[in-house]
Amino acid sequence: MKKPIIIDTDPGIDDVVAITAALFSEELDVRLITTVGGNVGIENTTKNAVDLLTFLGKDTPVAKGASEPLVRKPRTASHVHGSTGVGEYRFEAKANEALLSNENAIVALRNHIMYSLEPVTLVAIGPLTNIALLLKTFPETLNNMEEIVLMGGAVEGGNATPVAEFNIFADPHAAKIVFDADIHIIMCGLDVTRLTSVTNEDVEKLNGLGDAGKMVYDMLDYYKHTYSDGSISIHDVCTIIYLTCPDLFDVKRANVNVVTEGEAAGCTITNYMDDGNVSVCIDADVNEFRAKFISIFQTILER
Q1: Is 79 a catalytic residue?
Q2: Element housing 296 (H / E)
Q3: Given 173, 184, 225, 235, which residue is catalytic?
């Protein structure tokens, strides 16, 4: 049986790669995609989600969520992802607007979780605003969640500030609510997403792997301007590869405290302990990860 998941996302080039991987996975059943402001504003992240699903021929519903953080002013990463969030790429097909739900993301999350016959895994690959609002508004949803797998945080170092990773930095107050919740969390932070970067040669291979591969190749070709060492960190896809190939990763249990104020806002202070509620990904088989990344698009091409 496929694992039921909901993806909360701010597409975003690496979000596009993660969503594509999840939608074509034989192990995962994507029940809902919810959008949040993050890499770019909410209108663009929502449009990108609908455009991507239309391009891929998928009918997963999309629900638009929070446009701003709980407390802070919005911060984007348009300098990395471009003003629209997908670099210079343009989806040509007319968007299937029927995919966009009339429900707010928080209500849609609640309904899909509570009506599911089996526990749902939340895959959070953007700022955690929607998830925090869900937990505060509908705490009963915790009873039918399997776990939260998220891309965010870092044990050491950051990419938004010297100590903070972008998704946590964008809404640290929301992140604190989520990390403090009574649920098991898998943290795919910068420690492992930087380690599992793919090479420029890997990216070149995508160009010959069908429409989906060419689409991702074109986006990553833009994304490469952020990197100068011959490899690219496609951060969000780590969550999907973790879900489908957990044996590739080494994890360590911890409690994670999120700093919400001051110069260190967004820092994830990681205290390793055997009874912690967070499993922190600290290492991975990089060669196998890269092979899995390429195989995703080979599989799509063969279908």
Answers
A1: no
A2: helix 286-302
A3: 235
